Queue: 2 jobs
Job 1
Amino acid sequence: MEPHFSRGAFLFWMKLNFMRFGFETDFEGGAQRCARRLRIAAESLAALALLSFPAGAQGAQATAPPPAQTNAENPKPRALLVVEDDWGRRVEIPQPVRRIVSLAPSATETVYALGLQDRLVADTDFCDFPPEAKKLPKVGGPFTPNLEVVVSLKPDVVLLAGNSANRKETADALDLLHVPAYATNAKTIDDVLASIARLGEVLGAAEQGKALTDSLRARLVELRRKLGVAPPARVLFVVWQDPLISIGQETYIADALRWADAESVIETKLDWPHVSLEEVVHLQPDYLVFASDHPEEVTSILTGLRKLPGWRDLKALQENRVAIVSEAINRPAPRIVDAIEDVARQLHPEIFAESPHASLPRRTHEGRSPARQAATPAEANP
Amino acid sequence: MKPLTLHRVLWTCAALLAVLFAMILVALKVGAVPISITDLALNLGRVILGRRAEMQSDYRLIVFGLRLPRIVLGMMVGGALSVSGASFQALLRNPLADPYVLGVSSGGAVGAILALILLPQVALATPFAAFLGAIATIAAVYFLGRRRGQLDSTTLLLAGIISASFLSAVIIFLMTTTVGRDLRGMPFWLMGDLSAPLPESLHWILLAGLIVGIGAIYTTAADLNLITSGEREAMHLGVDVTRVKLVVYVSASLLTGLAVSVSGAIGYVGLLVPHVMRMLFGSDYRLLIPTSAIGGAIALLLADTLARTVALPTELPVGAVTAMVGAPLFIYLLRRRLR
């Protein structure tokens, strides 16, 4: 069964997680998973009642190999790389890194982009890109990973993403258990590129990391050259519409918009501000930007919003100036550059229409088309 | 009613401790990573014989690094909440009193969050601020709950419920408006959760606070028996009511504050466990306090084991489990009383 994320659910859940705290695997239904949970639940209840148990929770073995498996693998102590991560924590990582556990979708994507997927032993329920990442063993959600499963996988390093997926408590917990945990914490696109390069160094793929970030940076420079001195589009980035949640200026998403020659109309230092609709009506953004891999969902949401007071007074909505961009913009990973290019194309169609031959190549990974362009259908089929 | 003898207290506690021990074994066995009974027995044996070094390192990490500390933490928090619930029920002469219902847990949580925001670097600021928050809340609720100089049962409960909802709103306000610090883990304070491992030193502080708090309350157990039948009557019988009340309020707030500072606001344990213990063993506080302590440990350990295992590999916050199991059980007990 294909996990189907509702639009912006990832970010929404980050902010409002007290409503869904601990329940995020519900996003990923599936009869098998359900049955397994029931089996485990029944088994633990039976165990509690009878104080006698069968040989073990077989169901959990899908996510965790028997602990003894890899014990005698490394008789010699390995070299340690001592680094400071983006949270300023000192991390000692054995080299070469052989077993990686990723606790964030962005970290999973970066590991794949660096070509290190063979060393990735597990990731989270939210790691859906590239599609192969969905088949890896899961350790729960990014916010409430199961520490027992993480520890049992004997990772050389656990990767976290500070302000997009994980919380500090998880890193603290792993420290107490002496499991190396390396966190990235990007606030700008420069930070994102730097963190990709640093992950390359830490994981023993410095060259790939440098090549990857060089090419990403070249694309950004080219984009900036192309956009030239066009006045920035004033946009409202909609993380969630009810209640209305947008982004703060100190997030990498706001910076991604700036690279696409757009500016978020919401001025705040809070990362995920709840925004008053009155304020938005007053500001009248040029465009609404939604992040979704399911544009048809956004279309149906927009139909609903057009009927609501406040929303229907937004000129951007009346004139269908809405950009739907891939959820990659929510993740501080290499694909965010694809998303930036896509936003730029949608918000500044005139620039890209003028010189069709020089238009940017669409670099998207396999099996995924760039987000549809509801606002400018002509541009979608050049 | 049989007279209470030391013999009976000891035997009752021994029986409950046996149940607790069995529960610990179950909690050690079940979890996300399957562990066979033989391995568990073997490794427990190694620990008892002092041969920790012979253990496989992942068993040491998973069973003794993760599960055991969490089990110990759950037992301590459960015991603290139940004893503090039992004491509030006596002092306020109200069977519905409990640190969660009275808002004391939320007060502790507000204190803890303020300490996290304002004094992030100061060691032990969080438990201390949680204690101050708890004691300030119970004082406020106590004064709000008085009518014409008398403690009014209904007013008191309403004051508690309203304080709890006010303080929850304060927590949400702090969560939404604090800039520049990662407070996304904060919902934990509203729900109650035991998943974060703590440094060992905090375990010892918690244990010390628990012994002091429960010990202090236990010294007043005989007086509490008299106070439950009325403060004036107790005073006529020679109880120093003011002193007893002061000791019990401070100790119960200490217990609640400590519990909240490590686990957030967990509901229903402090309310239900003393009730169940009363039904099973009678309402003499000399027996009720130790049985509540052990019963609370059993109850929260059971709830946390369920929280760890029902939604594998994800965990539920334990507060959700205690509320889901506790609320219907509470209604049942309430209806039974009315009949």
Note: Chain A touches chain B through 60 residues (CB under 8 Å).
Job 2
Amino acid sequence: MLFWILAVTMPIYLAALYMSYQATADRLEQGAARDADGLAARLAAELDIVIRPIEGGIRTVAGQLEEVNPPREQYPLRIHGILAAWPEVYGSTIALEVRDGDAGAQPFAPYYFRRDGAIAYSDLALATYGYSRLEWYRNAADSQQPVWSSPYFDAGGGETWMVTYSVPFYRKPAADRREFAGVITADLDLKWVQAGAEKLDLGPFDLGWLASPPSDQAFVAPIGATQRHIAARPTWLSDAIRGEAEKMLANGLTFGLLPARVGGEPAYLAVRRLSTLDWRLMLVIPRRQLLAEARALLHRQLWLGGAGLLLLIAAISFTASGISRPIHALAESVGNAEEGNLDFHLPESTTRDETGVLTQALRRLRDSLKAHVQLRAESLAAQSRLEHELQIAASIQQSMLPKSNADGLPRSVKVAAALVPAKQVGGDFYDYFALRDGSLLFAVGDVSDKGIPAALFMARVTGLLRVLGNTGTAPERLLAEINSRLVEGNDACMFVTVGCGVLDPTNGLVRYVSAGHDPPLVRRLDGSVAPLIAESGAAIGIDAPVEYRQAQGFIAPGDTLVLYTDGVTEAEAGDHRLFGAERLSKLLAAHATQEPAGLVHDVLEKVGVHSADFHAADDVTVLAVRFCPPTVSAQRDDACERWRIEAVGTSGGIRQAQQWLRTILTAREVASGRIADVELICEELLTNVVRENTADGGRIAIMVDCLLDRDDIRLVFRDAGAPFDPLARAAPDLAQPVEERAIGGLGIHIVRELADDARYSHVDGQNVLEIRLRRTPASQGATP
Amino acid sequence: MSLKIVLENEFPPSLSLEGRLDSGTAPDLDRMLDRVLARKGITRIVFELGKLEYLSSAGIRCFIRARKAIEPGGGKVAIVNPQPAVQKVLDIVKAIPPGGLFKSIAELDAYLDDMQRKVREGD
């Protein structure tokens, strides 16, 4: 932080310093220029005080000479007057013009000058002098104007620097004519100028000169202490400096830096051109000297600034540490925090600055986090308790379902069932149990909705099914009764579809009632699968009273009834294909063993595979009942179904065998007339065998095979009794009067009449009688 | 599924058979016939078969026995209203002459009235 603050403030400060220095330097330069102006003005004034009156005076004398035109003898008087009037005038003359045409004219130029405190005379009109050719004369004569000469050193005369003022004068030979008559001069001794310059104060400047315009013999008057200063500075070249000044004037400059070669150190030069005599004023001030004040100021500011910066740094450090220390402390406290330990200490903060606010905010955050963590722990505990309860509920629910090897089931059936709940507890159920009359009641149901409500409702349904089912009521009344009980107080508006059937194990009769449930499938011995058609009534729990219609049908030994819930057919795959009834039928048809347990397992497995990449949407329940009475064995050959009925040679046994045949043929939809024929044949042949073999009071076992294919019904009767061919018996003479008829032989006659084919053989000590009937009679047979 | 025998009328005896008349139940009918035939002067026995579902040769033997018992004395056995399956068996063995089969009691009554009229006219 400190770095950044300094990084920002330092450049600003330095820029300010630089600007201040520059401003001061500019101000000082302007001051120097002003000082130079002042000095120039003073010099000009001092010169003018002397020179302007002299100029005026000489010109007045020139005017008087023109007006009065005195004789030349009076000229010395006039000259004396001039010398007397202006002490600065060293000498003066009035030189007459000599014209070429004026033969009588002689040069005339008396010169009076000061010497040793007195006035001395010198005649300039000497032929050797030839004044009319001299500069002081010619300048005025040629220009016809008053003219100042350049300064010159008067060697041999005054031994001093001089400057001469020459004024032409005129004469009027006629009133309208004016002609040039000569030149009046005044020589000014420049000692006073040198003295005046020396007396001047240089002010801030180090060196200064008053100088005449450059010429062969330039007059230079050092100003003030210049001489001393220049003596102390051997590197300074005064002439070169004056040369630079002329260059500056030529360029129109009045102030500038001197080139290093003319001075020992960087210095400024100020130049002024005076109006008087066109003289120059040159002033030099070393840069160091001019800017000393600025430097001093800069140094002062630097010191002050440095001190300020130090103060700033100290203040920043103090403030920063005031902020960062609590933040540091905060960071340390918070850094130690973790989920399990939120009891970290937060520094007490009573300040109302940002740190205080932050600490307060963190405190609130910590507290709410603690509360949240605790809440979460509680909810986790509650959840796990619930989970546990659900597990118990699930196991209770499973225990409500009958065990696969439940006791008391008829020996004629094999039952297997399974339920896979979508959640822990489900709304599906199945049940099966033996009724008092030995029948098997089986049911599968699917409660609307899923989860606990469904499970509770399911418990009620199974409870009622058990209690009411055991009374042996017909299934349609059973469901109606359950319905009326469940409708009562069904505020939750739950309902359940139930498929409920009763199988009579003695004859394979199935009575089935559906309350809104899918029809069960019958998997026949030959592998074909067909639904058991039943009119479906309303689902249970919706309305009361409801009447249900019972459907009846036989299943043959070896057939399997399969009940399921829609969790099977509506099991959804990832691509939303349903498992479907068709797939289920195919699966059942292809199943090899037909063992209910294996069948159920396979269905569940296939459904599981089908919906493996999809969430389980519904409970899946399958119940399979295989009808396998012990006295009838069933098997399937290539082209036909085959049953073997073990019949006992009693009238009861015969009746039973007949019943099995009726069951089998009904289950295979053989026309009832044909079934009656088969029953009759069975009885006639069996009674025959019994009659032939049980004269001694013993019993005989007879095996009746029933083979069924597309066209024929074949019956094979086997017994190990005495060899006896009933077909060998002559047919009774039906034309005989009844009184004369033998009472026997009628049965065989009937058999012969009904059968399409009958043959006897004796094989392996057994009487084998084979009867063949067309499934549907070719004609009405023996009916007249 | 057994046989139910109802003696509708004592004289002349009329037996209504319901259920199955087979080798198992025929002895029951035989016993009933024993009782009925024990009486003298039976000239007519009517078997009402409207509710008989099944008939085997054992049952037919009962009918033949009845015929044997009364026909020599001029009696007659009448079978009334046999169901198709039963009719079929009766047809196969021709146990009852065509004149002994009646579709209904009314037909039998009409026949009997006719017979009586003939007898009176004959007298």
Note: The first helix of chain A runs from residue 2 to 68.
